[in-house]
Structures are given as C-alpha cells and as structure tokens.
Amino acid sequence: MATDADVVILGGGCAGLSLALRLAEQPGLCRRVIVLESRQAYQHDRSWCFWRLGPHRFESLVARSWSRVAVRSATQAVQVNCAGTPYQLLESGAFYQQAEETIQASDTVRLQMGVTVLAVPQPMSGGWRITTSVGELTAAQIIDTRPPRLPQRGDALLWQSFLGQEVICDSPVFDSSRVELMHFANDLPDAIAFTYVLPLTNHRALIETTLFDPSPYAPADLALRQQRAVQRLCGAASSRVVRTEAGILPMGLLSSGNTDPQLEHAGGYCRVGLMSGAARPASGYAFQRIQRWADRCSTAVRSGYDPIKHSPDPLLTRFMDRLFLDVLRSHPARGAELFINLFDRVAMPRIARFLSDRASLADRIAVAASLPTGLFLAQLLRLVQRARLRERLT
Ligand SMILES: Cc1cc2nc3c(=O)[nH]c(=O)nc-3n(C[C@H](O)[C@H](O)[C@H](O)COP(=O)(O)OP(=O)(O)OC[C@H]3O[C@@H](n4cnc5c(N)ncnc54)[C@H](O)[C@@H]3O)c2cc1C
C-alpha cells in the first residue's frame, strides 16, 4: 500500500533533527521524510557540552571552548589542562536553527511543528499508521525519538537531575578560562550533589545544581540549592537570571519503560534517543552518541534498509560503568573522592576518550587503576552474590 512518507520521525529534538538534517543533505533512496514535533517553535533550551576529540560537523556552531577544567570538594581540588581535548559548548538554539534551515532548503524532508503524536503507531500492510493531533499519517518506516515515559525511580541506577540558570553579573566574578565541572557539596547523606559552572564570559555563566540519586528530581526540588549556589558564586555582585534550563538524565538505564515492546519486533520501527540507549551510563551525556547514531542510521535508511537503534556498549564499558554507578549508589559520600582521584591521577586525553566512548584498553586500565581497589572489589563481590541469589530464586 502507498504511504504518505518513506520515513516519519516522531519528535524533532536532538536525535530527530540530527537524523533529519543528514537525510536532507543526502537523501539517497529516502525521498519523503516527515518530522513531527509537538513544540510550536524552538528555543535555546539546553547547552550541549562534550570533549572535542577531533574535527566534527558542528565546529562552526561551537559557542565556547575551554582548555581547563576543575573538580573540587571542600577538602580537595584538582585543575586539569584539557587543551588537547577541549571541553566545548554547543547551544541548542544554534543547532535547531541550522537544522531548520537545512530542512527548509531540502525537497525531501518536511518539519511539521506543533504536531503531537497521540497514540502508539499501528502496523498496517506495507508500513505504519500514526495518529496525530492534526490527523492520521502513514509511513513505510518510523523512527521514534519520544521518551517512552517520565523518569521513575527504578528505571535507572541513578538519575542525574539538574537545574541551570544563565546569570549575568555586574562585575567580573567568573574565571572564563576554566569550567568548574563538579564542585561537590557533600551535605546530603544519600545523594551526590554538586555545582557545574560554565563561564561564558567573566560576567556571565551557566550555573547548574546537579544531583545523582536513585530518584529523579523536578526543577522545583532543586530551586533552593540553586539559589544558594548563585548567591555563593556571584558574591556581592548584583546578578540577573536571563535563561533557565533543566533536565533529568538516566545513568545506567535498567528499564526502557517502553509501553509496547512488540513494536520493536515489527519491521521498520525503532525507538531511539535519551531514554532509549543514547545516554552513556557513566555520565548521562548523549549528544555525541546521538551524532554517531545519526550517521549510521541515515546511511542505513538512505540505502533502503530498516532504521537502526543505538548500538549497545561494548561488554567492558558496560561492566565498568555498571560497577562505577553501583559504587556511587552505595557510597554517595565517596563520590567527590572518586571523581577527584580520576581527574588527578589519569591523563586528561585518557579521561576524555573514556567518557566519549573512544577508550583504548590502556585508557580503561588507567581509569580503573585510579579508583580505590578495595571499595570496587567489595562492590563487585556484592554484585556477584546478588546475581547468584537471583539465579537461585528463579
Ligand atoms: C538541559 C539539558 C542539558 C543537557 N546537556 C547535555 C550535555 O551537556 N552533553 C550531552 O552529551 N548531553 C546533554 N543532555 C542530554 C541529551 O543530549 C539531550 O537530552 C538531548 O536533547 C536528547 O535528545 P533526544 O532527541 O533523545 O531528546 P529531545 O532532544 O528531548 O527530543 C525529543 C523531542 O520529542 C518531542 N516530542 C515528545 N513527545 C512528542 C509527541 N508525542 N509528539 C511529537 N513530538 C514529541 C519533544 O518536544 C522533543 O523535541 C542534556 C539534556 C538536557 C535536558
């Protein structure tokens, strides 16, 4: 049966637009693509940071690039030169604008704003039927980037909840040459809490209050801590908030939360994005992983193959991330020490490669060697015992 589109992308955020812009540039066999996005218009709603390991397609959009990062607690501090792998900031507003312009100039991709997908897509002969707020649509293939459900305790080993504010001060209170990656508070018994500061100029910074905790937290829960962080950092300077952003990122997803797993087994449908395998467990970061997925998925669909999901991480990465997150979850009070040791003892290029899925075996060994062996071995033993018990019970 003829369909309205070859590919319909549900959700035009980072993953949806990253794929759409590649198909707009080079459609191949995929000549009718529709992106359905529920927002009426895009705003600069998030700041994507990553370590630059080499040339990338968004060089011209990079708003800031830093050569120094710091990690600290009340008792320890480490500052690292990362000039070889600079920490870069890409503002989502610039990304959305470039994607919109590329799509507008293409004959093959259409972006429909203000359209909400209302129900689970239904398989039909030769494709899929999609129900939206403006009517029905059929497609040969669907790439679904919508989050399956709201973050819930139990769906991830830890949730990274954060509230950030872009603040302008009337005096130069920020050191614009250095990112404060993590300034740990250590005042919560069961969570890891820290402030993240991206200095945009000496007067302007994005200040973020972040929690790693088994439960997700809404921005309102973090508002008081955030207010105190802004006061501490701005000191006597008068300040105003010009933009706010917030998020809840999964660290070690345990359940996809997919309401209809059968969909995954039907041909021509796949679920991707932050809550469907894009986020790196150890960091919650997803931007670079989404770009790599978009490269592979666009190649597949433009060549006439089914869309593809995020690749699972290599076994060793999964093992290391799982153990690291388990230790953080069981010993949140030691979180600051673990991160400070990592940045103090491991060469920066190794850390950047490790966090960007580009680690060699030597990088992994260096990362593992920086961590307290006894603590990790005890946690590993507990994991093995738990797995054995589960085996016996089932
Ligand atoms: C504030 C913030 C800062 C972040 N910072 C970083 C960072 O520094 N580095 C990093 O690597 N990662 C970062 N991340 C994590 C990750 O890169 C982003 O969350 C990224 O946007 C995930 O892309 P996505 O396409 O999965 O989700 P989104 O970009 O959220 O896209 C999903 C889209 O689906 C749309 N949608 C949802 N439901 C429907 C529906 N029913 N119908 C139609 N459309 C729908 C939404 O409107 C949205 O546009 C950050 C996340 C946030 C929230």
Describe the structure concisely.
By secondary structure, the chain is an alpha/beta fold.
Give the topology.
Elements (H helix, E strand, L loop, with lengths): L4 E6 L3 H12 L7 E5 L9 E5 L10 E5 L1 E5 L4 E5 L5 E5 H13 L4 E5 L8 E3 L2 E6 L2 E10 L11 E14 L9 E6 L7 E8 L4 E10 L5 H16 L4 E15 L8 H4 L3 E3 L15 H16 L12 H16 L4 H11 L2 H8 L5 H9 L3 H21 L1
Parallel strand pairs: 1-2, 1-11, 2-8, 5-13, 11-17
Antiparallel strand pairs: 3-7, 4-7, 5-6, 9-10, 10-11, 12-15, 12-16, 13-14, 14-15
The protein binds flavin-adenine dinucleotide.
Textual characterization of the structure:
The protein is an alpha/beta fold and 394 residues long. It folds into 3 domains: 5-67 and 90-148 and 256-302, FAD/NAD(P)-binding domain (3-Layer(bba) Sandwich); 156-252; 315-393, no CATH class. The chain is 32% helix and 29% strand. The chain is built from 10 helices and 17 strands. The protein has helices at 14-25, 92-104, 219-234, 262-265, 287-302, 315-330, 335-345, 348-355, 361-369, 373-393; strands at 5-10, 33-37, 47-51, 62-66, 68-72, 77-81, 87-91, 109-113, 122-124, 127-132, 135-144, 156-169, 179-184, 192-199, 204-213, 239-253, 269-271. Strands 1, 2, 8, 9, 10, 11 and 17 form a 7-stranded mixed beta sheet that branches. A 7-stranded mixed beta sheet has the order 6-5-13-14-15-12-16. Strands 3-7-4 form a 3-stranded antiparallel beta sheet. A hairpin with a 4-residue loop joins strand 14 and strand 15 (204-213). The longest helix has 21 residues, at 373-393. It is globular, with a radius of gyration of 22 Å. The model has no long low-confidence stretch (mean pLDDT 95). Flavin-adenine dinucleotide binds at residues 10-16, 36-39, 46-50, 116-117, 145-146, 245-247, 249, 273-274, 278, 285-287, 290.
